[in-house]
Amino acid sequence: MKKLLFILLLVSASAFAQDATVTKYADLITPADLKENLSIIASDALEGRYTGSRGQKMAAAYIANHFESVGLTLPANGSYYMPVELSSTQVTDAFIKAGTTKYAAVNELVYMGQSATNGEISLEAIFVGKGSDADLAYLNVKDKAAIIYVDQLSFDAFRSIRKLSTTLHDKGAQMILAVAGGKPEDFTPFATMMKGFTRGSLSLNKPNASPMGKGMFLLSQEVASKILNTPFAKLEKAVKDPAAKKPLAKIKPSRMVYSVSVESKIIKSENMVGFLEGTDKKDEVIVLSAHFDHIGIQHEGEDKINNGADDDGSGTVTILQLAKAFAQAKKDGHGPRRSILFMTVTGEEEGLLGSQYYVEHPIYPLTSTVANLNIDMVGRRDPEHAGKPDYVYVIGSDKLSSELHEINERNNKTYTQLSFDYTYNDENHPSNLYKRSDHWNFAKNNVPIIFYFDGIHEDYHKPSDEVSKIDFDLLAKRGKIVFYTAWELANRDNRITVDKK
User: Fold this and answer.
1) Of 29, 44, 272, 483, whose CB is crowded by the most CB atoms within 10 A?
2) 452 C-beta neighbours (distance < 10 Å), count
3) What count of Cα atoms within 13 Å lies in the side-chain half-sphere of residue 360?
């Protein structure tokens, strides 16, 4: 019995035995190198790396220099730069008139959208409350401006408004406006934050007049009251009185005028791509990706630069170190059997645009692309993991390939021993993170993916997302699990099977 137990233990140990050669190159992903690169990528000099900006192009030059210095070759497109041309729309003026009063200040309203009105438009405004099916059954919104009520100011609340706005547009509403309950003084800081997202919209295609393109105004309680000639308390009562029959019909429609001016132009940006050719299976490609753009400079506050150290400077510098490790392995005679494309993409913050462009114009056929390992925010801990063992959220590993999931799990048990958190792997999770980073464009095209992520922390999309808050030891450890999984994908005999859809 003791002999059998010894054999079983020996087999178990060998199943997770570390390969000294692989470990040697994984150890080239060091906290010191990561910090050195991130101190440049997420510095004030790069001005928040907004897509197409001077700072983003400075980051691109730094990445190209790194790819060349570690020995990556030019991909089949002939350059480390993959040009991405984008259409930009910028709202230059937006206002509402109620009676003789004009409202345009950030403490009064914010316009969310890209479509111009080509002058002033006069519409009847109608209050639709929360827009329930029962209320919309007796309200006529056709050719009107529909004013929606939400309980509080939050991103989640306005996501629900977006869904409702589609319904209202389908019923013929020409403009959507939204007002929130709660404290009136909460509107200005929320509106200021939302205004930061309205400086312009980028797209791969020229904007079109879709229902969502008509936009939406967020209103202060005072402006909503002025438009409807009704005290805000009465508007809230109409929404919250369950006993009233057709309560919203008691709020009389009123006329308003609005105008939106938009400026359009072409923005030139680029994905950055470096190539490491494989040996006997060089026609099959692994794509390792992160986005190197961020949200740039804001207009309020003492610190105005959103450096994006974690989002996604952390992923960008991890790609740089992965390139260094694999390139050194090749120099030493241990190059991968399959080719590897190291890619930092642009325009993620604007709607996954750089990765969308790549899959629509791939340098290497998607049918030859074995997997995409995507890294977006891997340098911090979220509040849920404070004081807990080292972890990383793993998203999407089991969606298309059972083998990919097993490979990632096994390499973690063998080498890194991170705690894998699959909370966000649920496609029905409210955050919907499976579809919110660049891997999604590969997954949509049936390429197996893994998304590595550290969670949402208090500095997300704020100037306080600084290098000083990065845990570089943990960042290196997360980079190594990507390396180990990529190494096996690149060197195993058989390409992983896509066994799910």
Assistant:
1) 483
2) 29
3) 9
d(CA 336, CA 497): 19
Domain count, the chain: 2
DSSP collapsed to 3 states, 314-380: HHHHHHHHHHHHHHHHHHCCCCCCEEEEEEEECCCCCCCHHHHHHHHCCCCCHHHEEEEEEECCCCC
* pLDDT for residue 405 is more than 90: yes
- Residue 94 and residue 69 share a domain: no
Angle ∠(298,49,317) on CA atoms, nearest 5: 130
Does 280 sit behind a cis peptide bond, omega within 30 degrees of 0 on the bond before it? no
Instruction: Name residues whose C-beta falls within 8 Å of residue 150's C-beta, 6 or more positions apart in sequence.
Output: 130, 157, 158, 160, 161, 178, 179, 180, 181
110 plus 134 within the same structural domain? yes
Q: What is the mean pLDDT of residues 69-80?
A: 98
The answer to whether residue 93 scores a pLDDT higher than 90 is yes
Q: How far apart (Å, rounded) are the C-alpha atoms in residues 426 and 446?
A: 18
* 429 in a structural domain: yes
**Which residue shows structure tokens 């797209």?**
203
Q: 10 Å Cβ neighbour count for 344?
A: 32
Helix (H, G, I), strand (E, B) or coil at 250: helix
Q: What is the pLDDT of residue 430?
A: 85
Question: Do residues 422 and 412 make contact, with C-beta atoms less than 8 angstroms apart?
Answer: no
The pair of three-digit structure tokens given for residue 69, joined into one six-digit string: 């210095």
Largest CA distance in the chain: 93
Distance CA 123, CA 168 (A): 15
In which band, very low, low, confident or very high, does the pLDDT at 206 lie, cut at 50, 70 and 90? low
Shared-domain flag, residues 298 and 245? no
Q: Residues 183-192: contacts with CB within 8 Å, 24+ apart?
A: 184/220, 184/221, 184/222, 186/153, 187/107, 187/153, 187/220, 187/221, 188/106, 188/107, 188/220, 190/153, 191/106, 191/107, 191/109, 191/110, 191/218, 191/220, 192/106, 192/300
Q: Which two tokens stand for residue 103?
A: 């409202």
Judgement on whether residues 332 and 253 belong to the same structural domain of the protein: no
**Residue 308: other Cβ atoms inside 10 A:** 31
